[in-house]
Amino acid sequence: MYALHYLRNLGFSVRVLETGEDVGGTWYWNRYPGARCDVASLEYSYQFSEELQQQWRWSEKYAAQAEILEYANHVADRFDLRRDIRFNTRVSAMHFIAANAGANNRGSGGGDNWRITADNGEIFQAQFCIMATGCLSSCNIPDFPGLDDFEGPLLHTGKWPHREVDFAGRRVGMIGTGSSAIQIAPLIAPQADSLTIFQRTASYSIPAHNATMDADHERTIKADYARFRAQNSQRYAALDNNPNSLSALEVSAAERESSYQQRWEAGGLPFLASFNDLATSLDANKTAAEFIRRKIRGIVKDPIVAELLCPQTVMGCKRLCVDSDYYQTFNRDNVSLVDVNACPIERITSAGLETAEKEYKFDILIMATGFDAMTGALLGIDIRGRQGLSLQEKWRHGPKNYLGLSVHGFPNFFTITGPGSPSVLANMIVAIEQHVEWIGDCLQQLRANSVSTIEASSQAEARWVRLVNKIANKTLFPSGCNSWYTGANIPGKPRIFMPYLGYPSYVEKCEQVASNGYHGFELRSL
Length: 526
Ligand code: N01
Description:
- By secondary structure, the chain is of the alpha/beta class.
- 30% of the residues lie in helices and 15% in strands.
- It folds into two domains: 90-138 and 373-525, FAD/NAD(P)-binding domain (3-Layer(bba) Sandwich); 147-367, no CATH class.
- α1 packs parallel to α14 (428-448).
- It binds 3-acetylpyridine adenine dinucleotide (N01).
């Protein structure tokens, strides 16, 4: 949405192709009960328009899905975006056609072009393609035997029905215990006859302590919103997380406990910034992990269930979850937890599912099983660059690109918050705005200098991939767990840590590249 607005203002002709029936992306699809952002509303919102950020009023500290969708609709209306968005249009193929490709390029105006095919057969031509396909948009539905046999509704959290789902009196089964499951469980449990949750890996979750928007806080931020945004953009992940510059190991046990306790009481993702070495020192990390496990044991009454809910992986190695009464939900009589490591799911049946131990009967089955993250949506399209090179082939051993923005062999092709950029490890809206502006300014430069194609050089790409890995390998992220950051949640996906760790240093690098004549890119003029 912002790319459309930004590029339009630069005088480009822009067309957006969108699978959904309307705007909103993540917030259009993930409409399960309890869906809510875990970044504070005053931060998880556009900053490109001062009027917009001043006038929009968030009702809660963390906005719920419906409110964020309303915001997206407001932005679409306010900036008259819909007239250039083609909804209900899923792109199935994108092929780069070089100017000298002759007959194949007929009707394209003679220059290099992308030919984009939608699954209804419609064909579009464009000089530049910007992929805004999302990091968590391609649903992961594990290939359980008998998946099609289930006779009741089988719902994935990332593709939730538009109608209200009635859980009253229903026996509900849910597979997965990541962020989505942690949000939905406390909402379903009070309605359902029973809720049975199948857990493969326990997650760390911090209470959200969500509340209605504090009017004084809102007024203070809005009095100088630009300063608030600028301050956050200098912080790790572009979040107002009040980072502690001390190591967890250089303070006394009492100070450490007090620091964790304060963060627990404040709630949310800033818990990760309790100390400066939780992502790099296993010993430091263990202190935070043990603190959370003690909290879980204090909340969950049944000690066997509490132990099962205690995560044993590195804290924060998988995306930290933020909840409202998730652990408390297990104190209800109608909620049960099944450890699928001890009792693997063997098959889905017409009436529920079977584990190695017993058969479960359900009226509704929920897959809270996450996404083929970061690369899934891109690789779901048949994308071919120069000489027919397919992105699927190029990324067979993992994504390779430069700055997370451009792929060698794929000219005039950009990825917004692609693998190799901070994306999911930053405030997504801030990361998106930075990418949109960088790409828009780049296109403006190309136009001013009559450059017809731009693409990453293979050397710059190789150096960037090495850097992304080098930085990741200094942390606990790549080896501390099987996270979707590494593709480990998808059978057969190459295991490689995909995001670039380091916002705001990343922004500086992007700016240096641009001011050095797009160093590391190959620019060609017709
Ligand atoms: O997905 P997940 P999600 N058998 O991948 C389990 C964002 N988000 O939709 O951990 C059994 O985290 C899997 O088990 P394991 C946020 O960035 C944000 O919950 O792989 N279980 C895991 O428990 C988040 O990280 C918000 O062992 C299987 C679960 O399914 C990201 O989206 C809210 C399985 C999937 O968890 C994804 O979250 C929601 C199998 N075969 C989401 N396959 C907020 O802003 C998978 N699982 C708050």
